[in-house]
UniProtKB/TrEMBL annotation:
Lineage top rank: taxon: Bacteria
Keyword Ubl conjugation appears in the UniProt entry: no
EC top class, as a word: oxidoreductase
Cofactor(s) the record lists: Fe(2+)
Protein name per UniProt: TauD/TfdA family dioxygenase
Keyword Glycoprotein: no
Length: 335
């Protein structure tokens, strides 16, 4: 097959801002070969809509997802600094993050706290859950426009701060996040990626990194709300989970938390505002086995609803960005 046997339709009526192009795939025996022929049309739809959902592609295993990624002619992203453990299948191709099924994952941009984050995400549903588990999408430029100006002005001036405590119990371990437990290697990585790190008396690691909260999309210059301020903040956690973590590790020892760029705590009211704006701009897509979803990670935030029953969604990350290409509003340092 040398071309995609369909036309790229406009956004489905009624889906609203943030909705993807919905593309039916023809019945094929080789999804990777189909993706190679469809590459230009997929790129065009992704640029226009920020996300593309391909129904019925028949993906069945991580190897098939890796093959599709390889035929799209993009550079895989090797994940570092993960906030939760996940299984790696091949370069750039991973399982979903280990996150309790009964807890939703709120809107975020994948690895937006890293330098060299992926610009392209592929989600492939190998097994749909019995109930729930839909993926949500939200247009980052629309979200920025809808947030209160005073709030976004401060984050543009100061950026946002991510504080992490690696305790070996909750979230990713040092080895899972950095690919090694060698202290010298971890410190070299942190120094090269503008991360302040300190080893604790109990052997744990604490890190802080300041990042831009607003960037410009390299393709069209649109200003996008690009961060994980709400997702990794203590006030987004379920109240009982937050209470347990604070009792167990103390307010300064949470596995992850976010602050204003100057280090000041972010109030619960601010996190509620951010999450409510996300909610107003969310389009939810229930999964079907075999689906493929391509997401522009700068333009489009994503989330995951709680679910019941088995669920297997493979994630591929590609097209690494560099801070300078996205016009960050604060200096974050070179790779």
């Amino acid at each position: 097959m040398t071309s995609m046997e369909m036309t790229v339709p406009p956004l489905n009526p009624g889906r609203g801002p943030g909705g993807p192009a919905i593309l039916p795939a023809p019945a094929v025996d080789d999804p990777a070969r189909w993706a190679a022929g469809a590459r230009d049309e997929l790129h065009t739809a992704l640029v226009e809509h920020g996300a593309v959902l391909v129904h019925g592609l028949g993906l069945r295993d991580p190897e098939g997802v890796a093959a599709v990624l390889g035929r799209l002619d993009v550079e895989p992203v090797a994940e570092r600094e993960s906030f939760a453990p996940r299984q790696s299948y091949s370069p750039g191709v991973h399982s979903s993050s280990a996150w309790p099924p009964n807890q939703p994952m709120c809107m975020h941009h994948e690895l937006s706290y890293t330098l060299g984050f992926p610009r392209l995400l592929l989600f492939a549903c190998l097994c749909a859950p019995a109930t729930g588990g839909a993926i949500g999408l939200a247009d980052a430029a629309d979200v920025l426009e809808a947030l209160p100006r005073g709030l976004t002005d401060r984050f543009e001036r100061e950026g946002w701060l991510l504080a992490r405590s690696y305790n070996g119990e909750i979230g990713a371990t040092v080895t899972e996040a950095f690919g090694t437990d060698d202290r010298d290697a971890v410190e070299r990585y942190c120094d090269a990626h503008s991360i302040v790190c300190s080893w604790q008396p109990d052997g744990g690691l604490r890190t802080e990194q300041r990042r831009s909260a607003v960037v410009r999309h390299p393709a069209d210059g649109r200003r996008c709300w690009f961060n994980q301020i709400a997702f990794l903040n203590e006030w987004t956690l379920a109240p009982e989970v937050r209470e347990y973590l604070v009792d167990e590790y103390g307010p300064d020892g949470l596995p992850f938390n976010t602050r204003y760029g100057d280090g000041e705590a972010i109030g619960e009211d601010v996190i509620q505002i951010v999450n409510s704006v996300y909610e107003a701009h969310t389009v939810r897509l229930p999964w079907e086995a075999g689906d493929l979803l391509l997401v522009d990670n700068i333009r489009t935030a994503h989330s995951r609803e709680a679910y019941e029953g088995p669920r297997d969604v493979v994630v591929a990350m590609a097209s690494p960005a560099r801070p300078g290409t996205c016009s960050p509003t604060i200096e974050v340092g070179p790779l």
